[in-house]
Amino acid sequence: MTIQSSDPEQAQRKAAAGPALSEAHQALKVSEARYRRLFEAAKDGILLLNAVTGRIEDVNPFLMELLGYSREELLGKTIWEIGAFKDTALSEAAFAELQANRYIRYDHLPLVTRGGESISVEFVSNVYDGAGVDIIQCNIRDNTKRRLAEIALRASTRALTLISQSNMALVTAKTEDELLAGSYPPIFGYEDAESLELSGFAGNIASDPAAGCSHVNVIL
Hints:
By secondary structure, the protein is α+β, with helices and mostly antiparallel strands. The chain contains 9 helices and 5 strands.
């Protein structure tokens, strides 16, 4: 049995609201489809995490290709359970910090892909309010080439500085003994930490010589 409303104005308002609700629902579907296309086509890696448990709820194709993992291997896991992120700053403590501050960033996070290749990434994570439910979005950008260039630039700068210091010593030293008594570090090469990091990037340099051209030039 259908009960008719005794208030004609209320019935009119409901009838008028029907098309508006339908339009709003359609607009929401269009917005969701647009976001999905952007998510799938993005040239940065994207992870969506449950803000309470930290478990991965979605991952885009670019990140799967970058790390060498399938969607099934990533969904339902926490970041620190995945091989590529193990032994990095992304620990349970870092997740607790993210929950508290709603933001975390690493400019040079070293990762190892499933194939054993070392890469450097920029990792930015934010907590968003998604219709009353917190969602964590992690944006991951491969910056390996930039990292290699920065290391090479630092080494080149040190080399030029030491050459300048050596030239000054040649000018100011009054005797050969005074000149030889000076302690000068090697002019060319890398510091221990840089050498260790570069050894991890060896695969990148071998597969893309342009990525490591500045590294080779400094050694030469």
